[in-house]
UniProtKB/TrEMBL annotation:
Domain of life: Eukaryota
Name listed for the protein in its UniProt record: Auxin efflux carrier family protein isoform 1
Cell compartment(s), UniProt: Endoplasmic reticulum membrane
Keyword Transport appears in the UniProt entry: yes
Similarity remark: Belongs to the auxin efflux carrier (TC 2.A.69.2) family.
Ranges annotated as spanning the membrane: 6-26, 72-94, 106-127, 147-166, 236-254, 274-294, 306-330, 342-365, 377-398
Pfam families given in the database record: Mem_trans (PF03547)
Amino acid sequence: MGFLNLFIVALMPVLKVILITGVGLFIALDRIKLLGPDPNRHLNDLVFYVLSPALAATSLAETVTFRSFITLWFMPLNLLLAFVFGSLLAWFLIKITKTPKHLQGIVIGCCSAGNVGNLPLIMIPAVCEESNSPFGDPAVCSMHARPYASLSLAIGAIYIWSYVYGVMRLYINSNIENGSNSETLPKSSTELVVVPSSNGHNNPTSFDGTIAKMSASKGIMQRMKIISGKVDLKKVFAPTAIAAIVGFIIGIASPIRKLLIGNKAPLRVIDSSAYILGEATVPCMTLIMGANLLKGLKGSDVSRTVIIGIIGVRNILLPLMGIGVVKAALQLGLVASDNKLYQFVLMLQFAVPPAMAIGTMTQFFQLGQCETSVIMMWTYVVAAFTLTLWSTLFMWILA
């Protein structure tokens, strides 16, 4: 597969995202007003509660079975490592750049959550269709491509709408409520109390240890109450994550699968309807990102240093880590050495730009929409080149 062909294959899905973003930007202009603040918010709610859950559920239910999941069991772990490494790198980036508090959750989201669903769904089958692909027979490769990409989308959705959504919500709520200052420990709980001894002289030594332990216990209990008060499990487990779990159950439970999936399934109309809804997710999310970009172009608080840092994390550091993770998994026997396409997908999950769902979350929270759109714009523009180069390197390593 020549470099030019590979460049076009990797470039096309990213260019599609950029072009649709441009459409969203255009229809959000004051002269057009098709996607103003109110329509944008309503469309975002539709994506959050209906379209994205439908996409996650149908993609997983139609393509993943119990047997295939047992074969691909390492993918959830691989994605988890990508999210964790991204979060750690984001934490270092925040400390180095001194990112403002109201943008810290967005930085963590952009660094940890990659577009592990939409781009693989486009890229992996396209790579397989090339006659000189390093992954063997195009027909066999294409047969495995969609299950790999669909499992990546579904597992990624669970992580994005549980872990990343929860982390961003905690950061954003802490800034909205300004609770960090008001929720400090009471002064009396941290003071050292000197209790008089029976002989009339102060003897703090005999009581210091006990009092210190009591103060520490009270402090821990108060912090636990603060955290439990902020974490709302109903909101942490967002509709998309719940839908992905439902789709997984349908896929691996053979009796339920036979009722819903397939041309002869009695209830196939339910799956077909949900599939049609899910197909609208990607364009709607991209239009929202374009509409939010209009605000960012008028003025954004995000600095160049932060944007460059996020680009460095997602486009340089994480792909290098992905190569190391997959190579280590091969050495340990966790991944079959003869399945080159699967290894390519695992590496690709570390190299994709930030997930567009981050823009949906900021729109849902009504905070940081324009900053997120500016970050998305630059990361996707750079990804048009870096994703091509990394894909070429991944194939060269696997070949």
